[in-house]
Design goal:
This protein is α+β, with helices and mostly antiparallel strands. It is built from three helices and 15 strands. Strands 3-2-1-6-5-4 form a six-stranded mixed beta sheet. A six-stranded mixed beta sheet has the order 9-8-7-12-11-10, with helices on one face. Strand 4 and strand 5 form a beta hairpin. It is elongated, with a radius of gyration of 19 Å.
């Protein structure tokens, strides 16, 4: 019995399908359930740069197009169209939060992040902020959920601003946004 080889679609067929879907508004990636088509040689680097076959994708419009059909399932990331689903490699998070603005204070504070692709999201219960500490270096790695489980790593300058806006609550140092408190670290670790 022979096995069929699954051939991933070309980058141009993905781009065409994504463009058709975007022409009708935000692609409803969460509703599409195509069969897995295979992995494609596409990678999102830790700094938010996208690569195809080892070459940077230099057109921001193309990157934004592919980002619009990006979906996360568990620890894997896929580009999804109504008829195709291909795996890609993401080194850290698919987006980078390059700016943050605060409005209001205390429980009324809202933190709005802008990603490297121009998407804006306000942290809150559906868009939480989390911080992981690297066990080797003790360096914090902060993230905010942008959409549908896709995260943006918060850049250093934005994280420093967040620390300035933080406060202590119930033994934790953290941030308010969208009516939710997001703990960053135990208050005792701030000393």
């Amino acid at each position: 019995m022979s096995k069929e080889m699954v051939t991933p679609p070309s980058i141009s067929s993905l781009a065409e399908a994504a463009e058709r879907a975007r022409a009708r508004g935000t692609p409803p990636v969460h509703l599409w359930t195509p069969d897995f088509t295979g992995d494609i040689d596409m990678r999102i680097a830790r700094d938010g740069s996208w690569f195809y076959q080892g070459t940077p994708i230099g057109r921001p419009e193309m990157v934004a197009l592919f980002a619009s059909i990006l979906r996360r399932e568990g620890d894997r990331h896929f580009l999804v169209t109504p008829v195709e689903k291909v795996g890609i490699k993401v080194e850290d998070a698919p987006f980078l939060a390059v700016d943050v603005e605060a409005s209001g204070e205390g429980r009324e504070q809202e933190l709005t992040f802008t990603t490297n692709l121009g998407e804006r999201t306000t942290a809150g219960p559906d868009h939480p902020i989390r911080v992981e500490i690297d066990p080797k270096s003790d360096e914090p790695a902060p993230y905010v959920t942008v959409r549908d489980g896709l995260e943006a790593r918060i850049d250093r300058k934005s994280f420093y601003r967040l620390v300035e806006w933080g406060e202590e609550r119930d033994g934790w140092f953290g941030l308010w946004s969208g009516g939710a408190f997001f703990p960053i670290t135990a208050s005792e670790d701030m000393a």
